Automatic annotation (TrEMBL):
It comes from the Archaea. SUPFAM superfamilies: Winged helix' DNA-binding domain (SSF46785). This is Conserved hypothetical archeal protein. The lineage of its organism: Archaea, Methanobacteriati, Methanobacteriota, Methanomada group, Methanococci.
Length: 360
C-alpha cells in the first residue's frame, strides 16, 4: 500500500489498476479493511471476495463509522435527505451537532445493512454507489489468489459497474495471480509510474510523474539503472530539465562485463589511438584492437584512418546511449523489482536484529 499512499492522486483516474504485491501484504481473510485520507483523497481498502454480498459487507463495515468524511457533494443525486441533513446539522459549523448527525447516519447505514442481509440487490447497489460517489474514494480491493476462486464473473461485473459509475479501482493481488487477473480484466492499467516515484522516494529523491516516465523508459524497469541515474541527480526532480543523466556512468554498467574497463577509459580519453588506450590497460594490443572494433559495431566509438594511424573517437549521443541500454538490459516489471528490493532490505534488517539477539 505504500506505493498508493505515497502518491494517491495518480490512481484517482476512474480506471481499473492492477498491482501485484507479495502475498504477506494482502489483508488476512478475517480483516475487512480500513480507510485513510491522504492529500484529501479517501483511500478505501477492503478485502475482495468471490461473494458479492461479502464484498459489499466489507465495504460497509469500513464505512459505517466514517460519517465525518461524507461532506455532501451536491452534484450527486440520490439519498439527498441524509446528506443534506448531515450538512445542516454537522458540517455547517454554525450548528455542528455531532450526536444528532451520527444518530441519523447509523439509521441509514443500519437500513443498508438490512437491505444487504435480505439481499435486496437493486436497493443495495443504488445506495452503495451513491455513498461511494459522494465519498469519491480510490477503492482498493485486496485479493487472495483469484486463480483459485470457483468463479470470478460476479466480482468482474461488480468492478466494471463501479468503474462505469466513475469510481477509481485498484486490484492488489499476489504475484502468482497477476497474469490470471490481467487476463480477466479488460482495459486495466498498471501504475509503474507511481512505483518509480515511490522507489525514488526511498532513495531520498522527490520526482515528478514526467521524470518517473522517463526513468522507466530509460531503465526498462531495472532498479540498477534507476539507481545509477538518481545517484548523479538532484534530490528534487520537478521536470525533465532537472534530470541530468550521466551516460558515462551508466553505459559501462550495462554492456557485457568484458567491455567495462575499456569503455571507462574511452570515456576519459574521448579521442585516442590503439597505443594510448593499450597503455592504460593490461590487455595486449590485439585484444584491445578487437574490442575497439566490436565497440565500433555497437556505435560507441567511430574509427578512421589518418595517414598510417588508426584513430578512434567517442561517439555517444543521447539516442545512441538509449539504444545501447535497450539492447543490453532485460525488461523488468518494476513491481517485481521493488518487491525484491524490499525483501533484500528486510533480510538485512533481520540479520542485524538477530545479531543483536545473539550478542546483546
Amino acid at each position: 500500500m505504500e506505493i498508493i499512499y505515497n502518491k494517491p492522486e495518480i490512481y484517482a483516474t476512474n480506471d481499473i489498476w492492477i498491482q501485484p504485491v507479495s502475498r504477506s501484504s494482502v489483508l488476512e481473510s478475517d480483516v475487512v479493511g480500513n480507510c485513510k485520507i491522504i492529500n484529501d483523497i479517501p483511500i478505501l481498502r477492503v478485502l475482495g471476495s468471490p461473494s458479492l454480498k461479502k464484498t459489499v459487507l466489507n465495504i460497509l463495515h469500513v464505512l459505517k463509522d466514517k460519517m465525518t468524511i461524507f461532506k455532501n457533494n451536491f452534484e450527486i443525486k440520490g439519498m439527498d435527505n441524509i446528506f443534506k441533513y448531515l450538512n445542516d446539522v454537522y458540517f455547517d459549523k454554525s450548528v455542528n451537532n455531532y450526536y444528532r448527525a451520527k444518530k441519523a447516519w447509523y439509521r441509514v447505514i443500519g437500513d443498508l445493512f438490512e437491505d444487504v442481509n435480505n439481499w435486496n440487490f437493486k436497493k443495495v447497489m443504488g445506495k452503495l454507489i451513491t455513498i461511494l460517489k459522494v465519498l469519491n474514494p480510490i477503492l482498493v480491493f485486496d485479493l487472495h489468489d483469484v486463480s483459485k476462486w470457483n468463479h470470478l464473473k460476479t466480482f468482474q461485473r461488480f468492478v466494471q459497474f463501479l468503474k462505469n459509475e466513475g469510481i477509481s479501482i485498484v486490484l492488489r493481488c499476489p504475484f502468482e495471480a497477476y497474469s490470471y487477473l490481467k487476463n480477466n480484466f479488460e482495459n486495466y492499467k498498471t501504475n509503474s509510474v507511481a512505483a518509480v516515484i515511490y522507489y525514488a522516494k526511498t532513495k531520498g529523491h522527490l520526482i515528478s510523474e514526467k521524470v518517473s516516465e522517463e526513468l522507466l523508459k530509460i531503465s526498462c524497469g531495472n532498479l540498477r539503472i534507476i539507481d545509477l541515474i538518481l545517484a548523479n541527480s538532484k534530490r528534487d526532480l520537478k521536470n525533465m530539465r532537472d534530470l541530468k543523466i550521466n551516460w558515462k556512468k551508466i553505459i559501462p554498467e550495462v554492456l557485457p562485463k568484458k567491455y567495462k574497463n575499456i569503455v571507462q577509459k574511452i570515456f576519459l580519453l574521448k579521442k585516442f589511438n590503439i597505443k594510448e588506450i593499450s597503455d592504460m590497460l593490461e590487455y595486449s594490443s590485439s585484444t584491445v584492437y578487437n574490442y575497439l572494433n566490436e565497440l565500433v559495431g555497437l556505435n560507441i566509438i567511430k574509427k578512421r584512418k589518418v595517414n598510417k594511424n588508426i584513430l578512434f573517437k567517442l561517439d555517444v549521443d543521447k539516442k545512441t546511449a538509449f539504444d545501447i541500454i535497450q539492447s543490453n538490459v532485460d525488461f523488468k516489471d518494476i513491481f517485481f523489482e521493488i518487491n525484491d528490493f524490499k525483501n533484500i532490505n528486510l533480510k538485512k534488517r533481520t540479520e542485524i536484529f538477530n545479531g543483536f539477539l545473539i550478542f546483546g
